[in-house]
């Protein structure tokens, strides 16, 4: 009886462990959307102005983080929802490429402009903590979906 119970529990564990993974790295069929470069630049400037007002250093632009932020923004648009899916993979890749010791991200969608996204992040304790964190580099990706709605991804690292 104990052996059957142990076997049943083991099978159940394997099934649950395999089905609970929400992180898929399959991005082969995700379209690439056009960047809203002016919105990206504005949001980066707003975040750096906020940091400077608090006495923190400005974040430097990172092309590597920008590439990963763009890929994630495209992924969210294709999925049609906000997510941090595959963040551990992005963070690991960034860490190995630039020797970063810590990576974080903020995401948003459906805000009409950079200032609104920034204000909503500022109102959220976790997003605010990220914007004000001990980071040295960042990149912001902002793109519109087919309905004209903005999606935002900002990656940070040190």
Describe the 3D structure:
With 158 residues, the chain is α+β, with helices and mostly antiparallel strands. It is built from six helices and four strands, in the order H-H-E-H-H-E-H-H-E-E. It has helices spanning 2-19, 37-53, 63-79, 87-98, 114-123, 125-131, and strands at residues 60-61, 103-109, 137-144, 150-157. Strands 1-3-4-2 form a four-stranded mixed beta sheet, sandwiched between helices. A hairpin with a 5-residue loop joins strand 3 and strand 4. Helix 2 (37-53) packs across helix 5 (114-123). The longest helix has 18 residues, at 2-19. It is globular. The N and C termini lie far apart (54 Å). The relative contact order is 0.21. Mean pLDDT is 87; it is low at 1-25.
Low-confidence stretches: 1-25
Structural class of the helices, strands and pairings? alpha+beta
The biggest sheet, with number of strands, parallel, antiparallel or mixed sense and barrel status, is:
4 strands, mixed
Biggest sheet strand line-up: 1-3-4-2
Our estimate of the beta-strand percent is: 15-25%
Radius of gyration: 19 Å
As a percent range, the share of helical residues equals 40-55%
Tally of helical runs:
6
Bulk shape? globular
Q: N- to C-terminal separation?
A: 54 Å
Instruction: Give the ordered list of helices and strands.
Output: HHEHHEHHEE
